[in-house]
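User: Batch of two.

Assistant: Item 1 of 2:
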Amino acid sequence: MRRLKLEIISLLCLSFIEANITTLMAVASR
């Protein structure tokens, strides 16, 4: 149960970081 929670949290963090990177790239390409 706890391991599943950690995996979900890590997935959320990864998606959040990925969204930030794509946003930074879009801003930098302007």
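Item 2 of 2:
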Amino acid sequence: MISFLSVFPPYRGGIATFSDSLYRELSLLTKVRPFGFKKLYPSLLFPGTSQKLEKSNNTYALEVFHPYQPFNWRQVAEQIMEENPDYLLYSYWHPFFAPGFRKVLQHSKKINPVLKTVGIAHNIMPHEYFPLKKYLTERLLDKTDLTVLLSEQTESDFKELHTESQYMKLFHPIYELERPEADVDQLRTKYGFHKDDQIVLFLGLVRDYKGVDILIEALNEILPKRERIKPLIVGEFYTDKSKLLDQIDGQVKDRYTIRDEFVSDKTMAELLTLSDLLVLPYKEASQSGVLANAIYFNLPALITDHPGLSEHLTHRHNGMICRPNDAQDLRYNIEAYFDEQLKEKLSRNLEPLKEELSWEKFASRLVERMQSL
């Protein structure tokens, strides 16, 4: 029996979505008890509008964990161990949560010394500065029997740590979102685009490390000479929005569609259906749930050459890959993609990845490895 401590819906975001999908897939293989969060981030660390989904009744996890209330951590361990699990599985993505997770693992093992602990590491090191990040992560992983890594980048980061934890490398599975009922032309009309527009999409939280400034720099050269290209930037801004908008060439500002908002699954499915190219110009990356979604919708992506992004894509076969922090190379690849009409070829070649990166394969390999501990 697996106890799974993570953030689940109705909390929103990539980790909650991942945990929800993994819980459902694991439940087909074995008994799983989900334990969720009472609180997630303090307002100081969360600049967004809301941490929970609106109009969501999807609350199946027992909400027990408070990451910044130390008096709560021992109680959480005791609640989890009442179920007498064989494994304690948890999701890790930021050192802010490391002290609480460590205490839960430590006390759980005191209650049952043969308990096996398994951490799914979405990140090993955060993309932004955080004090003592390496120290906090190492102390947590020292209480973790098996660390599950989702990309080459997290594997590389893990190997730089001093920890006794075993590890296995898996992958970020592909989500199967519900496809829109409307067709491409109807969706383009809904979002204010024309049938012949060439829509370049950036999708997801807008943070400094995600390179939207590099994309704008490239588009400032592309747009004056290519009237059909229309940039579409959708996601909550966690950086200086006015600074980014001021970077856009005034002569082409009216060609942009910018939506500063949380993206629901329904909206994401519509955007990935109506667009011609997803651009992820990340300056650094562990992996990307947005890219996984794009693969499901057969939408080709232009990504920067980071191990966490590019390990499943081959340049000009099932994706486009450019150098990080290089607006000229990004510009060249956007133009080449449309000039050479690569969408149909790349889209077709994404199809085999759907089976290769399935939730079924992820869950079965995870359970098999856990049982060998």
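The chain has a mean pLDDT of 94.
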